[in-house]
Specification:
The protein is an alpha/beta fold. The protein contains 7 helices and 10 strands.
Length: about 200
């Protein structure tokens, strides 16, 4: 049986009880480095992988396996990849996403939020301009600072919130105006944009 387990933003305190029970009881756990470190607090039975294709190679033909995903596996996560490889998943355990965690830290309601990912792809920034509140998943090229500058070049006004190392002891959340320079404090970042529309009635 194969489980897909959402491991939250990283800190073990934000795992569900069900996730903890599964990680501790299966025969095999497979995870990327950062999440593998969290899983090692629960069990020594963790195989660390570096690339998506390595997950398939590590799935054993016997016993129960848990594939551990950061955040929630159904939100820009590993689920689509596993399904494309015809991996038969018995159950998916939900997890807290980094943006949910950050919205709570900022005390911002997100039910009207739009979601964008610039992770490994180009994004039409005009879509972000037309959204009052956006969550953006970043990568090395599309850093928080690059996003801030690009939106400023397009005439955007508003606030950009950037969360680094969310849920960890090194967590930092910055509040800047769009166009302000943003330091590159960590590879792990989540960006939330609030666009102001001065001409709106």
């Amino acid at each position: 049986m194969i489980y897909l387990v959402g491991m939250g933003p990283g800190n073990i305190n934000h795992l569900t009880r069900e996730a903890i029970e599964i990680v501790g009881s299966v025969d095999h756990n497979i995870a990327f480095g950062r999440i593998a470190e969290t899983a090692h607090q629960l069990t020594r039975n963790v195989t660390t992988v570096l690339k998506l294709d390595e997950i398939i190679k590590q799935i054993k033909p016997f016993g129960d396996t848990a594939i551990l995903a950061s955040g929630d596996a159904c939100f820009y996560g590993v689920l689509d990849f596993l399904q494309s490889k015809q991996v038969q998943i018995a159950r998916i355990i939900p997890g807290l996403t980094s943006f949910q965690y950050m919205m709570c830290q900022l005390q911002i309601s997100w039910h009207n939020c739009e979601f964008f990912s610039v992770h490994g792809k180009n994004q039409n920034y005009y879509d972000i301009l037309n959204s009052d509140l956006s969550v953006i998943l970043t990568d090395k090229t599309n850093s928080p600072n690059a996003i801030s500058q690009k939106l400023f070049e397009l005439g955007a006004q508003g606030t950009i919130y950037v969360g680094f190392d969310l849920s960890y002891e090194s967590e930092i959340i910055l509040e800047k105006q769009i166009g302000d320079p943003i330091p590159d404090l960590s590879k792990l970042s989540t960006v939330i944009i609030r666009i102001e529309h001065p001409d709106a009635a």
